[in-house]
Amino acid sequence: MRMPSRPSTPTRRAPQQDRSARRVRAFLDASEALFAEVGFQATTMTAIAERAGSSIGALYSYFPDKKTLAVALLDIHASRIEQHWKPLFDQVTEISAAAFSEQFLARFLDFIQANPSYLQLQAAPVPLRRSAAAKRAFRATLVDALRRRVPSLTAESAHLRAGVLLQIVRGMMHLYADAAASERIPIQLEFQTLMTVYLEAVFAA
After folding, report:
1. Of all helices (H) and strands (E), which one includes residue 146?
2. Which pTM does this prediction carry?
């Protein structure tokens, strides 16, 4: 007598794409931690593979060198910065130039505190250039916020002003990174004043 067969419940295996995504994430997490701990220059591909619990061959199959890893991390950082700024951009039509400047820079500094690898990568001795498309996408969010605050701004004018604001942030970042702890708040306040003066003119347009 034949016994009725039991329905099989095969164990689901993760698709290759899922495994690849997890491995890439592990390499990025490992490189981010090492860049924060010892800097770009001292970090090696071997150390990244070891920290990720993988082989050096697997690492090279996804990232040909640590510069490629660093650029990928900068794209991730840009997305995180945008998320830090999003609550401020959402209220841009209701906020003064002074309040916007204060929160704009404070939120950026909060991001730096939460992502210590960012300043290390900015100080790397080799140029780490993100793709032009990634830069445009990042700036577009700020352009949109400015045009909602000042509807009379053309897209070209808003793009220019967004670029100026980002350059102010970069200027503060470079001084801030090299400053002693006692100098950092005065640096922040100086750039906050600079941004406020600039934005008062922009918002009044």
Report:
1. helix 132-149
2. 0.82
